[in-house]
Amino acid sequence: MNRSLERAKYILALVLYGTIGLFLRHVSLPSEIVAMCRGAIGSLFIFLYLQWKKKAIPDTARPGMEDNEAVRKNLPWLIASGICLGLNWIFLFAAYTHTTVAIASLCNYTAPIILILVAPVLLRETLDRRKLPCVAGAVAGIVLVSGVWGGEIGNISGVFMGLAGALGFVGVVICNRKISGISPMDKSIIQLAVSALTILPYVLVKNYGVSLEWDARSVIIILILGIVHTGFAYCLYFSGLSTLPVQTIAILGYLEPVVSVLCSAFFLHEPMGISGWIGAALILGSAILCESMGEPGERQASGGTFPEKGD
Known about the structure:
Number of domains: 1
Structural class: mainly alpha
Strand content: under 5%
C-alpha cells in the first residue's frame, strides 16, 4: 500500500469538493438543475468505473450492487439517505447563489455540530456535555459570518439555506448509520441516483414554463461537476477513506471548508470582514475541538462531513 499516494488522492478529493462553489458561480442555469445533473452524472460515473474496474482487475471489484440481498434489506434507508442528500444539495446550491461561497460552505459545515444535539434523540447516543461549548462556539460563528452582528442582513437567506443544507446532511449521516453490508461505492451509486430523482420534481415545478438557456459554458461546467467533482472525487475519497488512519482522515478533512473560504476570498473576491473571519475561525475551531474530544468506540467524523460523504 502506498500511503503517500492514498493521502494525495484524499487531499485532491477534498480540494475538489471545496471548489464546487467557485465553479457554480459561472453557471447560468438554476442551481437545482445543476444539483440534479451532478447526482445523475456522478452516479453513472461511479457505476461505469466499477464496471471498468471489474474487467481490468477481476479479483478486486464487482460491477455495482455487489450484494442484491443487502441492497433490498437496506433499500428504505438507502432511499431515505438519497432524499436527504438531494435536499442537502438543493439548499446548499441555493445558498451559494444567495450569499458568499464562504458563508454557504461554513453554514453547511455545521452539520457535525447539529448532530451532537440530535444524536441523543434520533440515534440514542449519550450527549457529551463537554461538546456543548463547541455548539455555542459554532452558533456564535454563524451569527458573525451572517453579518447580523454588524447590522448587515443581506446574507440571512443564504445563511438559512446553508443551515437547511446542513440539516439535510445530518439526515444522510443518520440514515447511513442504519445501513450495513454494502460497500461505500455501491451505496454512493444508489444515493446519488436517488438524490437526482428527489430533485427532479422540484426542478419541474420551479422551472415550469421557464425558458432555459443551455449555454456551452454552463453545460461544460455541469459535466465537470458531475464527472470530476462528484464521480471521480468520490472514487478518490473512498480510496483514501479505506486505507488512511482515522486521525489523518479527520485532520485532512478540514481542508474542504478552508479551500471554500479561500476560493471565496481570493478568486471570487467576496468580502468577509473581520467579524466574518472571526466567525469562520469559531466554526472551524469548534468542529475541530469537538472531533478531537472523540468518544471511546465511536466512529470519528471525517472533517465534519463524516465518512458518509455528501457534499
